[in-house]
Amino acid sequence: MARESGVSRTTVSYVLNGKTGVTIPESTRQRVRDAAARLGYTPSAAARTLRSGRSDLVLCVLPDWTIGPVIDTLLDHLATRLADRGLSVLVHQSRGPRPLSDLWRAVTPRVVLGLAPFAEDDERAMRQAGIQVVGSALDADAQPGTFSVPQTRIGQLQVEHLAERGHRVVAYAAPSDDRLAAFADRRLAGAVLGCARLGLPEPQVEAVALDVASAVAAVRSWRSGTEPVTAVAAYNDEVALAVLAGLRAEGLRTPEDVAVIGVDDIPAARLAAPALTTIWQAIDAQARYLADAVLAALDDTVEPPAQPDDVFHVIARDST
């Protein structure tokens, strides 16, 4: 680089690293920048971290979940909010046997943000290395300072809404992907709890893949008993849309024969026929909380940000 631009290595370093307090003619700066462009030079993040003693990187660790509209939107909001503070987000999805420590030691983040709890050994090692750790959980009884999204409440809200519409025999459409068990098991537990509190029979559970054949099989099972199911609480909107397709294939009307409620309020829910009733999640508020928790950790703020109050509510549409 120095040879290409005809200046000293020190001058190259000053220009490329934006060092202040030194006088370098603009023509020389431009010559260095032009040489860097010709040579395809890219600054080393690791080297910059060593020089400054700090990183601008937030490592966001995802468990082995499927990445759907909700997680995608959450990450988009999170990255945008942190970018306003000059922080970049690197998303890592935990798959395979490679330990998390290999990653954070290689990329030297300032903060590691987990969308699920870390193993105790991992969290201890990161804190000992001077890395701030911010966690979240799927349960309402998470540790203080940890953001929690109580999944059981979602199932309860679904059942409560269906019961308000006069339904007494409820089914639960579970996802067919085992990677979603952490969410699905909790949402189903909430539906079971909701039925018990309202004096309803326990929900009839069938796994529904995202295809018509699977949904038809589930619908036939739900409707074959002495008390046919009249309402379905689905794991999410995608599963609910599959259930709607299965009902149409069986010649059943929604909501006259079978009502359906989903979760997430994805754009397709509004376009379904009939429009899908769903549980709305405050994804923007969740992302804002997580970003603020990261910033609080960096600023050594003792008190974590306040958790949002309105995390879920029902959006009633034609399917119920």
SSE blueprint:
Blueprint: H1 2-5, H2 9-16, H3 26-39, H4 45-52, E1 57-62, H5 69-83, E2 88-93, H6 100-107, E3 111-114, H7 120-128, E4 132-137, E5 147-148, H8 151-164, E6 170-175, H9 181-197, E7 204-208, H10 212-223, E8 231-234, H11 237-249, E9 259-263, H12 267-271, E10 277-281, H13 283-298, E11 312-315
Parallel strand pairs: 1-2, 1-3, 3-4, 4-5, 6-7, 6-8, 8-9, 9-10
Antiparallel strand pairs: 10-11
Helix pairs in contact: 5-13, 8-9, 10-11
Average pLDDT level: 86
β-sheet strand percentage: 15-25%
Number of domains: 3
Major beta sheet summary: 6 strands, mixed
Tally of helical segments = 13
The string of secondary-structure elements, in order, is HHHHEHEHEHEEHEHEHEHEHEHE
Report, as a whole number of angstroms, the end-to-end distance. Answer: 67 Å
Shape: elongated
Here the CATH topology of the largest domain equals Rossmann fold
Radius of gyration: 26 Å
Helix and strand content put the structural class at alpha/beta
CATH class of the largest domain equals Alpha Beta
Say which CATH homologous superfamily of the largest domain is assigned: Response regulator
Task: Kindly list the characteristics that best describe this protein.
320 residues; alpha/beta; Rossmann fold; 3 domains; six-stranded mixed β-sheet; five-stranded parallel β-sheet; 11 strands; 45% helix; 17% strand; elongated
Tell me what you see in this structure.
The protein has 320 residues and is α/β, with parallel strands linked by helices. The protein has three domains: 2-43, no CATH class; 54-149 and 284-308, Rossmann fold; 151-282, Rossmann fold. It contains 13 helices and eleven strands. α5 runs parallel beside α13, α8 (151-164) packs across α9 (181-197) and α10 (212-223) packs across α11 (237-249). It is elongated and about 85 Å long. It starts with a helix and ends in a 5-residue tail after the last strand. Keywords: DNA-binding, Transcription, Transcription regulation. Residues 1-52 form the HTH lacI-type domain. It holds the Pfam family LacI. It comes from Cellulomonas terrae.
